[in-house]
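Intended use. Records such as the GNAT family acetyltransferase entry shown here are meant for training and evaluating sequence-to-structure methods. They are not intended to support clinical decisions.
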Amino acid sequence: MEIRALQTRDAARCAELEQILFPGDNPWSRDIFAIEFSHPHTFYLGVFDDEGDEEVLVAYAGMAMLGPRDDPEFEIHTIAVDPEHQRRGLGRLLMDQLMHAADSFDGQVFLEVRTDNAPAIAMYEAFGFVNQGVRRNYYQPSGADAYTMSRPSRSEREQ
C-alpha cells in the first residue's frame, strides 16, 4: 500500500466510492473532487493498493486550511474507505496524516459526522475530538443529523 496526494486523475475513483458509501447524502461528483484537489488551501490524500497489475484507490481523506497562515483552523471535508478495505486501520492512517498537517500549523480542527456513524465518532474521539453540538438535517437529501466536533490545537492540548 502507498499513501500519496490525490491528483485530478484520482477524482473519478473518489466519486465512485462516494456513490457507494454516501448514496443518500448527495455524494460528490468527479468534478467537485477535481476542483477540491486544485485549491492551494486543501490537502487530499489517498491510500492505494496494488490489485493485480493495477494501483487502486481504496481510501481517501481531505481537509482545508482556513484563515490566516499564522493562525489557521482546519476543516475535514471527507474521509472514506472502500467497504472491502474497512476495519484495516486505513481511516486511522489517513487521520494520522491529517492531524500531523494540522499540528504542524498548530491549528484547531473541525468536522461534521453523521450522528449514527459510531465507528467514525469513536475514531474521532480517539484523536481528541469532542462533540460541540448537533446540526439537524445536515446531510441532504437524507435529512440525517450531524455532530459538529472539534479538536484543539497542539498548543492548547499541551497546556
